[in-house]
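Notes to self after the call with IL:
- keep both proteins in one doc
- input above output, always
- annotate only the second one for now

Protein 1:
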Amino acid sequence: MSLDQQIQSAQERLQQIQHQAEGNTGNSPLLATAITELAVALEELHAATEELHLQNEELLATHQTLAEERQRYQNLFDFAPDAYIVTNLQGVIEAVNGAAEKLLNIRRDVAQDKPLIVFIAEADHNFIYEQLDRVVRWGQHQTARALAQDLQRQNLARSANILLQDHEIFIQPRDGIAVTVSLALSAEFNYQGEPVGLHWLLRDLRDRKQAEQKIRTQATLLNLVPNAIFAFDLNHQIIYWNQGASQLYGWSATEVMGQSVDSLVYQNVAQLAQIKTTLLEKGKWQGEVCRILSEGQKVTLEARYILVRINAGQSQAILAVETNITEKNN
């Protein structure tokens, strides 16, 4: 029988006693007082029970909200695009997400309880051990506040729990080739300010490294071309300058990068405005232009300009390819 049912049964029994007492004129005033006080006590108990029910409903609602939030964060953890690993202070894996499974080439249930160091290339073992030792030392001697102050002095973090950011190391996947990743490390603290766990964020840099290599290769090829090739944004700031442009104009890439093409290249600003109008309308322009180089020499150039666009269709930059045809025209 529930508490509500017990209270209801007690109230019904009390009503029976009251009816019997009212029908028996020989009862003492003391009995009538006791019955009245018992009735009041039962009413108060009933009210307290109702309040308890309301509190239980609120508690259940809070638990439900917390469960939904926990599931939401679990989903964010599981489906994050970067590898995310949770370890204890000794570096033993407690949880990994889907991206970490793929990066380490191991199921999360198999990875659990394994030392993270077994998935780190040997060349970076000492670095990882240094991070673990550092956290243990802080846990023994410092509070989270002292840790934050220490980190701020070392310019290593933007918030109190970030220990390391954007440090490149090599991960050694199971039965695979070592992979370069960017490591971010943060600590989890309890209410006493003591570190209780570590969060390791590993960003796979393979695509970025391949893109960087591709850019370097393309830049090398462009530097081998005798033509002057340069690019500038729609604010006329130079964003690329090859060796051919350096040889033609007499300025190195370091000198011109970020400078305005108006003063360095286009003495005739009106002509540049006309070229830009055509580019915005048709996406390209071709013709002959006259230039005065850094040494004062006047030359005639065959110029081809292309408007480079991003995916959304917005203009991004103007790519210029210029060839000196002064001697040809003479």
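Protein 2 (the one to annotate):
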Amino acid sequence: MTSRNKDTELDEDFRRQRLETLGTLSGGIAHDLNNVLTSILGHVSYLRLSLPPETSHGESLNAIEHGARRAALMTQQILEFARGEEREFKPIRLNQIIQGAISLLKAAIPKNVAIELNTGTDVPQVIGNDSQLSQLVMNLAINAVEALPDGGTIRITVSLVTPQSSAALRELKVSTPMVELVISDNGVGIPADLVNKIFEPFFTTKASSGTGIGLATVARIIRAHNGEMIVRSKVDRGTSFSVYFPVCSNDSFQDSSHTLPTIEVGTETILVVDDEESVRTVIQRSLQHLGYEVLVASGGREALEIFEFEHRRISLVILDMMMPVMSGEQLFGKLQQIDPKVRVLIASGYSSDESAQAVLGSGGLGFIQKPFSVEDLALEIRRCMDVVM
């Protein structure tokens, strides 16, 4: 083996170890950020419930919520990148995903950047995960915004294309119709020698602000959706990302995402177990506002003491998974020893965590991902309460 080959292997080992270390660190940071965002979104929901509908603070609450949800998507992106999470796939209309993602981004888009949307209404559905597709759209849109330091135009189009009508599909050697998503800008462009590198993890051309995760995540999401992509760019002319998704064969799915969530109320007693005081506080206040009696515990030992004396009147336990001294999974086992029929709703930052899956496989009734709104939490609580045991 030559010295050059040895150096190459050492470089690859170092790069692999670096990615593993960064993945572990980013996962821990994202967990802590999710707790902070849970508190922010919870307080926004609580204020909406408490203030009169005609309050003048509505726009400020919307701005806070949009910012927190955007940050939540970013932390979820970090978690999925670090842990390779798999998410639920279902029939989805890309135009609705785009509209939702752009509405979250509005506050972050400079006034000298215009967005032109042409998403159509008769484009077939694709099979996908709404969170991942939202991340894809937001990442590409943010990338386009950053390519327009002096302003410009971002164009987003969605259409159905066929190999007969699309030279891109013929170039990709795709023989079936695809749903095409194009996000383009007339910005600074990407040098030709860098186009093939932009999807590498932690590669960035933005020395002071880039993370190198955004486009790497886009590439991973496209692979997970059995999609294809073509990137075209010219320096000082702009960049175009064309993404292609297989058409959903069953287009009878009815999307109900436009319906407003119903705020579910109740009078039962709920035990909230979370080591973050801000999370406990906002859940307690919000659920009390909805009529529930709420007990709180900052860790496993305190939760066991409360549950041992109060389990006959506790209808549900909302359980964080990552806690010091005693984990959520360990606590769940001890709660079951006291009451085998204990109802538990997991509240955690990621659903693919092995301990969360273990609890769900051993009798846990539900999972809600941090950060969440009070509206979402109330719906999941009622679903768990209504399960026949």
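Annotation: The radius of gyration is 23 Å. The chain is about 45% helix and 20% strand.
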